[in-house]
Structure prediction request, 804 residues.
Amino acid sequence: MNLKEKARGLVSQMTLEEKASLMSGLNFWYLKSIERLGLPSIMVTDGPHGLRKQADNADHLGINESVPAVCFPTSAATACSFDRELLKRIGVAIGEECRQENVAVILGPGINMKRSPLCGRNFEYFSEDPYVSGELATAFVKGVQSQNVGVSVKHYAFNNQETRRMTSDSVLDERAARELYLTAFEKVTRESDPWTFMSAYNRFEGIYCSEHKKLLIDILRDEWGFNGLVMTDWGAINNRVEGVATGLDLQMPADNGVNDAKVVEGVKNGILSEADLDTAAINVTELILKAQTREPFTYDVDAHRQLAAQAAAESTVLLKNNDEVMPMPEGAKFAIVGSFAKTPRHQGAGSSKIEPIKLDNVCECLNEVGAKFDYADGYNIDSDEPDEALIEEAVRIAKENDYVFVIAGLPAAYESEGFDRESMKMPESHNELVKELAKVNDNIVVFLLGGSPMEVVWQDDVKGILMCYLGGETVGKAIADLILGKQAPGGRLTESWPYSSDANPSASYFPGYQRTVEYRESIFVGYRYYDTAQKPVRFPFGFGLSYTTFEYSEPKVDKASINDTDAVRLSVDIKNTGSVAGSEIVQLYVSHKNPTIFKAEHELKGFEKVFLNPGESKTVIFTLDKRSFAYYNTKISDWHVESGEYELQVAASSRDIRGSIMIDVKSTVEAEIPDYRKSAPTYYDLKNGISNISDKQFVAILGRPLPLRKREKFERFDENSTLSEIEAKWIGRVFAKKFKAQAQEKLSNMSEDIIEMFNRMFDDMPLRSLRMMAGGDLPPQLLEGLLTALNGRLIKGVRMMKKK
Prediction:
């Protein structure tokens, strides 16, 4: 008997109340047990770049101290490795740590697309490209689940910003949804069988993702074949009864049984089918059973830290290397400048914040191997303003050394879960430091730490730039090894770097309006826009330099013409023509010539990482199938290939095509091809950008009227109204002030970055989410009274908050 059948048998023995009890958590991290049936309580906990398991004294917000675990590089970093095997090994290691801590499910990976470089949570995500995200996430999931530990693929779906993420309606056309924003989720589902999915906070098509039948049942289960459990993001529940009916299995965290009672009442009143409740209960029960197959384990801390250091170095991207300034010659005198060298920015803030086993820093790691160097802070880590005294000291030592390595980037306050960045700018204290150092030393190399692209305004003033992203607890060792030449940077960018955020295709539409965010750029995200519109970028997608050089042969295909039901194999020889060993990321793009439907100039459809010794050659083989050539045809609600000529491009980046070959592809499906050349012509000609798409053109591809962008003047308030919205009424202002004051008391013992995250989130929080924040101090009756008063009927005798 498989576990699904066993779960079905156990659910058949449960009372209505027992089944309903499984619909929500026991507390912040645990699921409920049913002891009489042998079902224990199991634990889920945060990830995704390490284990964030709270200690036994867990608070109601889930953000106090957690047990130490290896903090691996974040997904923004490891994605740059383009190394499936490396991601799988990291997954295995994190799975082993979960086994030691008796954790059943780790909440990750996050595979949302990087629609804008300003998204505050981009450090948790892989790429602007769905193929890269899907491939690397699949490898990671396979690694974790090889340890009989589950993952939770998140945030499903269209959660591409932090601003108003709990209430905003993502408005996008179905082609963009399918081709960009759902593709990675589909690949992970079909190829790695994840144990769980996590629904996002936001709405889509006006419906919250936690109760969206099209997303949770029609697409995820019926189309993609998902057979696991769907849980909410924490506090992302709207209508629990509706959620059960539309494919949501588990609400997290606990709500003191409020919604469980509503489920019971819904079944008794005939509003909810007990069969739908049974389906959800079976999925929860099966997850509990899966967790019982896990064997205890004790992981090797040193081995995991070595893997983390290897990953950090291999994922570092060499962005500039004039005059071969890197690697530094042996015996050269050098200095380290920048407070990040002693207090490295190694991970992002929010729910993914790991308590590291040991945080390496650059200076300590250099000292440990006996390296001789000078050091200066250069800037105050807590201030954006340049400190003249610190800069003068840095300039002094720069004059006395052959090389200067600057460790700079984005402070924690610049990017976090809970809020988005306002620009791509670095602190002026960092910029001024680099500029002044470059005036007195010709060999300046800057290592950048941060979760997203930055405006490197001093790019022309320095010889070397390396991007480490947020490289985990061993990023200090990785940088030290790179400086000493013990490691070579092996990464390539998985996102384009525009010159500024204003150049991004979503700039005019991000982060949207009070109620909605409109994805008017459609499929033109990242390099799909820049390369199609021929817009300059600072660094293109797929870009990264090496210490050696590579030669590409002309690509060959085994067929010059195929039907869309066939597969075609492309081969290309790669040779290391330099004097040192190195790795190359061979990228394959597909470009459709003269399509009827608007398309990007080209799209990534394959990549392989190859390591070559000097003079060595290897043959790289790619296999392309129907999906490699297909677009999503809204006329037939399916993937469709338009007959015609396609160029297959082998490349070192999206802007560095090393060879190409044409192939003719014939469709075997008779279907009308959507043609928007008259109704939405801008999508076919991007020479003037994409920042001024009219309502008429967007509606043409959207296929439905635009929803309301903001709250109407006399609209009734409800539990989805936000703190900022209710402040339009005097009683709302009183409540919000009182709530924020009490929240500050609860947050007083938290770290500064966590306090900043919540302070930035408060105004966008819906009233229903405040219960979790209040930790039991905000009973349902109080909210009911508040809403009644907001809607015009004053309630006497209701205190704003319960007092301890």
Observations:
- The chain has 24 helices and 26 strands.
- The two ends are 51 Å apart (CA to CA).
- The CA atoms of residues 328 and 483 lie 7 Å apart.
- Confidence is low (pLDDT under 50) at residues 796-804.
